[in-house]
Structure formats: structure tokens, C-alpha cells
Amino acid sequence: MADPAPRTTNLLLSLSGLLLLGAGAAAGWAYERASGGGQEAFEQRVRSYLVAHPEVLAEAADAYRKQNEGKQVADVADRLEQPFPGAVLGNPGGKQVLVEFTDFACTYCRTSVPVIEALIAANPDLKIVIRELPIIAPTSPDAARWGLAAAQQGKYPAFHNAMFAAGRTDMASIEGAARAAGLDLESARTFAASPTATAELAANLDMARKLGIDGTPSWIAGEQLVTGALGQAELAKLIAGAKAE
User: Fold this and answer.
1) Is 212 helix (H, G, I), strand (E, B) or coil?
2) DSSP, res 112
3) Average pLDDT over all residues of the chain
4) d(CA 13, CA 17)
5) What is the C-alpha to C-alpha distance for residues 242 and 157, in angstroms, rounded to an integer?
6) With contact defined as beta carbons under 8 Å apart, do 188 and 149 qualify?
């Protein structure tokens, strides 16, 4: 997926300048008029302030990013928290929801497994909706399809853990994880190649594109979106923030 950062950064810088200009326009213009200055002098004062206080741009950029992420999440919220049947960790009926976009070939996703287990153990009301996002390795789509097949057979958590424990996404590892999870291999193989599995992965890729997600793991709680490996305390804070919205 294309990285939207350069385009966003330019917009943020422009926005920051406009916000500062707008916020001080009335007082600034009156002051400059009283002191014999004009628009050019006022703009120079704003520019000098920004050069002297560049942290203002970072603060404005962060605020804009959070606002924009919230809108992006809201646009797909009706689909985002509705899991593929069975692709859930924790309490399937839990009221607190954390969405994870993950890839079985992702090292950081693998290191997040014990963090997720600790979160679930500490919060019996937590439902973690898993969205397979096979973008890292050529074999990622095969692993993701078998993950959906495991969900369809009601054995997703066991397959999820076995797959990450294997540390590879070649077909031998996939089938080994499927055996360890107790899957019916022939049924899983058939489902993995089905239009249903294809449609689910396409939907996940579409949601990721709309959310600006181009890496895994990515976490969403409420309207908050964070990409990267997070510790238990950080994820718990993300979940608590969603509860407070």
C-alpha cells in the first residue's frame, strides 16, 4: 500500500500555518494597524514565531492526525468490529472490542501473542476481532486463508497460536499448525480456496486502505488507531480510551 505520510505532512504544515494565522488574525491585524504595520508584517511575525517554536507544528500535526484517523475509523465502523465468524480471540460476546489487523508472517505480530493473552486474562469482557491482512510475504495469503478456514471450523484461537509458534508461513508449516489445532484438513483446504475466503481478504484490504493502514500489527479501539507492536499497558490504555469515548 502507498504510504500517505508525505502528502499528509504537507497538508498538516499548511493547516498549522493557517490555524495560527486565523487564531491571531483579529488581534494581530489590529495591533499591526495601530503600530503602522500591515499584512506582510503580520505574516512575518507569524513566520518568526513558527521558526522560534517549531513544536507548535508537531502539536497541530498530531491533533490533525488524530482527528483524521477518527473520521476514517468512523467511515468503516459498521464493518470494522463485525468479525469474520469465528475469527475472534478472548470473549466472543465481550463488550470491549479491540480490532487487530495481523499477518502470520509478521514478526511483531508474533511477539504480540503473549501480550494479547495477558490482556485477555486480565479482562474477561474483552473481544479481540482479528482481521487478516496478508501483505508481508508471498505466502501470507495462504496462511490467512487457512486462518479463515480455522475460524469457519470454530478453531481459530488454536490455529492462531500454532501458526505463530511455527514462525513460518510455508505450506508445510500451515498444515502443521492446522493439524495441531485439530482442523479437518480437506475441509480447510477447500474453504481456503473458496470465494468466501477471497471476499473476506479483499474486504480487509479495502478497509486497511481506507484507514491508511500499511503495516501490521495495527490496532483499533473506538476511533483510535495505532500501528506497531505495543505492550500490555499501552493496549490496555487504548481500550480504556475507547471505553471513555
Assistant:
1) coil
2) T
3) 83
4) 6
5) 24
6) yes
